[in-house]
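Researcher: Quick test of sequence recovery. Tokens follow.
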């Protein structure tokens, strides 16, 4: 049957072409590795992306081959996102916080032919280059640098590479939308990292879902700052979303500490920022010290791990900023849910609305969620029944890269590894990671709930609850606390926070103070490390 409607493939090249046609003068502000500010536009980013695509073709990089990046959030990295994927190559963003062995593994597993590096990460090429089996070209993101050239034989320079490209290059119009476009690996906290290979179709649909009013809700009127790194799940898809609506984009480079972010938000009048809770904890401390009220900032989107309710209240009450929970993972591109109220909730008492804001939110169109028991039987969406959280949709992984096996259940769902509840309006609340939840005397204790209570104390910078082995109860909760600089708080003070907040049997047995909590490659607390260090502390004390 003849089609009655036009058909154009959903491609990443079409996103940047759209930005160039409709928003060529919209700003792209980039903090460079050296600390200087690079000011560009979507029009210039589009032209450079095409020149890059042309230059890579002249280097002999062919359709479907991988180009790796180890880079910060900056303008050149943004151009790689579009120039590589738009031309039919695969953009493989590599997390520099992986171990050197893991970096060598993912470079080889992806079969990268080109490796783009910011100068910060040049040492990886110098030390690991001999272990990169397929890399033909290493490109430094910047102009010629003789000091860098001496470190890595044959090093190329991004700005010189662009000069060899053709600005009149056009992305292939007949590119199949199911062509792979980008590749991200999981953080590898257990075992080797696993690759998730996104397609043009999945990425564009994810972008369209993100740009809805009940999604990330970005607008051309916004100034958007992704603090979530571009090496972490494609910066949550923000570069694509921003291109689609031509918003001003602010890229913070390597300077993601609180004071630098406050200055950047104020200087560039950022309206929307996105990142993990540890980033916003640092920002709130910097705001407290600087006295800035970040008047331009209207919304922060917070994911990666559960946001403490105290953080939501602080942003809302002190800075008039809406802190919005989002949830996802590498396997979900990552948008799985966004916390946007439904109309029927607007008339509820503020205490009830505040409780709803603490949940991870609802899935956009294109994603379905369910919770199941151990037999994969669906459980009711009543807001109280807990189960294993599973997901399916247009931008959800089907199989890991080069695994040769499905990552799904027999009936086609992906098991997230989270324990959650769903209510009648589709709001999902993470109760814990299945591997982190504490089982004491046969009863479940949520580490997330305990952490939220501890973090609410004004002297606490961060906290993690873990299961410690116990001779009588199998496991008992303990809390590891990182104090704010100069703070003075005792174990008794922290334990008193739990009075009347949780059942007495859920109150932690012990509080341990540490200088710094161990953080993983994506900014999450490494609870496995904490369990290894402190898992026997209750047994040791009673021995």
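Model:
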């Amino acid at each position: 049957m003849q089609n009655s409607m036009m058909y154009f493939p959903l491609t990443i090249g079409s996103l940047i072409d759209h930005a160039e046609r409709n928003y060529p003068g919209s700003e792209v502000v980039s903090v460079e590795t050296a600390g200087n500010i690079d000011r560009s536009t979507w029009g210039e980013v589009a032209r450079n992306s095409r020149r890059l695509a042309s230059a890579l073709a002249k280097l002999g990089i062919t359709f479907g081959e991988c180009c790796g990046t180890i880079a910060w959030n900056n303008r050149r990295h943004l151009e790689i996102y579009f120039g590589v994927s738009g031309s039919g190559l695969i953009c493989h963003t590599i997390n520099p916080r992986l171990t050197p062995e893991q970096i060598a593994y993912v470079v080889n597993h992806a079969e990268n032919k080109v490796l783009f590096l910011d100068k910060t990460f040049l040492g990886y090429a110098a030390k690991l280059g001999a272990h990169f089996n397929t890399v033909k070209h290493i490109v430094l993101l910047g102009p010629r640098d003789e000091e860098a050239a001496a470190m890595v034989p044959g090093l190329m320079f991004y700005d010189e590479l662009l000069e060899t490209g053709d600005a009149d290059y056009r992305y292939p119009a007949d590119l199949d939308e199911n062509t792979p476009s980008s590749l991200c690996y999981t953080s590898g906290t257990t075992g080797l990292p696993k690759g998730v290979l996104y397609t043009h179709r999945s990425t564009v649909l994810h972008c369209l879902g993100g740009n809805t009013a009940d999604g990330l809700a970005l607008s051309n009127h916004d100034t958007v700052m992704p603090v979530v790194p571009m090496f972490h799940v494609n910066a949550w898809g923000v570069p694509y979303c921003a291109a689609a609506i031509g918003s001003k984009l602010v890229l913070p480079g390597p300077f993601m500490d609180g004071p630098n972010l406050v200055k950047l938000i104020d200087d560039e009048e950022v309206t929307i920022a996105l990142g993990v809770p540890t980033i916003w904890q640092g920002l709130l401390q910097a705001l407290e010290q600087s006295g800035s009220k970040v008047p331009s900032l209207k919304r922060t989107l917070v994911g990666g791990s559960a946001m403490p309710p105290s953080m939501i209240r602080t942003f809302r009450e002190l800075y008039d900023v809406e802190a919005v929970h989002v949830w996802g993972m590498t396997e979900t591109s990552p948008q799985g849910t966004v916390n946007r109220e439904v109309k029927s909730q607007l008339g509820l008492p503020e205490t009830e609305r505040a409780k709803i804001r603490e949940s991870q939110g609802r899935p956009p169109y294109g994603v379905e969620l369910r919770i199941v028991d151990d037999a994969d039987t669906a459980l009711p969406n009543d807001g109280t029944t807990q189960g294993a959280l599973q997901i399916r949709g247009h931008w959800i992984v089907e199989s890991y890269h080069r695994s040769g096996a499905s990552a799904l259940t027999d009936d086609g769902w992906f098991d997230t590894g989270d324990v959650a509840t769903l209510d009648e309006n589709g709001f999902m609340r993470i109760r814990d990671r299945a591997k982190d939840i504490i089982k004491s005397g046969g009863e479940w204790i949520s580490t997330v709930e305990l952490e939220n209570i501890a973090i609410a104390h004004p002297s606490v910078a961060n906290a993690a609850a873990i299961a410690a082995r116990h001779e009588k109860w199998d496991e008992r909760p303990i809390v590891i606390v990182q104090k704010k600089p100069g703070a003075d708080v005792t174990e008794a003070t922290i334990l008193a926070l739990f009075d009347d907040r949780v059942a007495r049997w859920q109150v932690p047995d012990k509080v341990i103070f540490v200088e710094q909590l161990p953080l993983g490659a994506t900014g999450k607390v490494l609870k496995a490390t904490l369990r290894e260090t402190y898992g026997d502390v209750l047994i040791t004390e009673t021995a």
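The chain is about 30% helix and 25% strand.
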